[in-house]
């Protein structure tokens, strides 16, 4: 019994193509990102504004802002896509609006709820001075257990933990709530569009 081992040598043409593609990609990346590396914000007013936004715009509020901005732009892009017929444009816009409304609503509610829940199990002191229960300080590490609960560092810590918890929860709600909710709302919009079309056709 004999065995043969064959080695497939790469095609020089393919190797040359991928090497050329890689070089072009790296060149493009350097053109885009190198100027950003040297970019520095020097305006004190701009720095204070960005700092204020980072401290005062919570994760739920940020999700709401993204949802509103998407609702003000994406449906119009669908409606003005001349490559498809009018009925498809309207159906696409209806689905986009439904997806934004459902996604934004669930996103804001879940993030807000998770942050509120984390707030109940992440305390360093009680309002009435009574000792905290174990569950109330469950997520308080030893290095921050003596912090003032109203200090900025502790607030940011709770917001981060709450956002992470919300992200985990939304892995499931995307399928359990967002998907069926989007389909239901899209069908409602399409029913109204079709009813209006039928009325105009009479």
How would you describe this protein?
With 202 residues, the chain is mainly alpha-helical. The chain has a domain at 60-193. Helices cover 71% and strands 0% of the residues. It has six helices and no strands.
Features:
202 residues; mainly alpha; 71% helix; disordered N terminus
H/E element sequence: HHHHHH
Uncertain residue segments: 1-9
Question: Mean of the pLDDT scores?
Answer: 79
Q: How large is the radius of gyration? A: 27 Å
Largest sheet: number of strands, sense, barrel closure:
none
Count, helices: 6
Global outline: extended
Total DSSP E strands = 0
Helix percent reads over 70%
How far apart lie the N and C ends? 83 Å
Report the β-strand fraction as a percent range: under 5%
Helix/sheet category:
mainly alpha
Short description:
The protein is built from six helices and no strands. With 202 residues, it is an all-alpha fold.
Write the layout of secondary structure elements.
Blueprint (H helix, E strand, L loop, with lengths): L11 H26 L6 H13 L2 H13 L2 H6 L6 H35 L31 H50 L1
Helix pairs in contact: 3-5, 5-6
